[in-house]
Amino acid sequence: MRKKKNIIIFTDLDGSLLNHTSFKFDEIKNYLRDCLKKGIKIIPNSSKTALEIQDFINDLNYKVPFISENGSTIQNLNIYNSDLPGEIKLAKNIDEIQSIIDKNFSNSLLSNCNFLNDMETNDQSKILGLTNNKLKMALNRKHTVLLDFKGSEIEKENLKLFCRELDLSLNEGGRVISIGDQVNKALAMKKVLDLLSNFKEFENVYTIGVGDSPNDLEMLNNVEFPCLVKNKNNKNLIINENYTISSVEAPLGWLEVVKIALEKIH
Q: For a tag on the chain, would you pick the N or C end, based on fewer CB atoms within 10 A?
């Protein structure tokens, strides 16, 4: 008797599943629901806040687990099995992160860092492409600090190394940089898979990863079927020859690469 194939799709949201500009996914909403109804697991793995991802879940109208703020928390795993936890925190809280930054960042480092929490609402809105309640949800962060970096690539690399010395991590998304604890999307994904492996219903798992930004690469490099969604900002990403790359942007790019990955599995 052939074992059932358990497929889990770990997906970034902005620019991967959601359109980079409009944040919409109407064209693929029914396909997502059909996948879920067939037993394919979809787990958003995003730099978005828990409130933002919950807003996406409400729009999808289908409850799913998710990973928020670049691997900082895992939520809703108990949907799969009541013995699994409903929430797992993997990162320091934002007050601790901000305190480390305040105590250790020199003026020269800070001169290139425009922290979103210090900006006027109009500037926050321009950078994130969000307004009103959507903007408030994006700024309601529990584990990461957002910044717009104005320095060179070399200065950005130096900042990344300095963060590592402070036991912090710098993650670069499609619009902004976030600084948080030493966690990332790949570590949180591995934690999910480790927990699921304890349950018989999660034998024979196949993993698909979908992303579009530098902060997705570790996740993509740790799944069996890595998929990259094309956008105008990711042409220079160092990509693995195993990646399936879309010919169009999100959300249709997500649909394209996921269909290819599912065909390979089946």
A: N
CA–CA separation, 24 and 27 (whole Å): 8
Nearest Cα neighbor of 263 from 27, 5, 50, 91 is 5
Domain boundary among 181, 205, 232: 181
Contact 52, 173 (CB under 8 A): no
Place of tokens 């944040």: 23
Residue pLDDT, tens place only, 228-253? 999 988 877 867 889 999 999 999 99
Task: Name, in order, each residue with C-beta under 8 angstroms of 254's C-beta and a sequence gap of 6 or more.
Answer: 11, 16, 17, 25, 28, 210, 229, 246
Residue 1 lies in a domain: no
Which three-class secondary structure state does DSSP give residue 170?
strand
- Treating both helix axes as pointing N-terminal to C-terminal, what angle do 121-128 and 132-139 enclose, rounded to 10 degrees? 90
What are the tens digits of pLDDT across the range 126-158? Answer: 999 999 999 999 999 999 999 999 999 999 999
**pLDDT value, residue 123:** 98
Whether residue 67 is found in the same domain as residue 135: no
pLDDT of residue 2: 63
Residue 14's contacts (CB-CB under 8 Å, 6 or more residues apart) are: 20, 23, 46, 47, 48, 173, 174, 175
Domain that residue 207 falls in: 6-89+184-265
- pTM of the predicted model as reported, rounded to 2 decimal places: 0.96
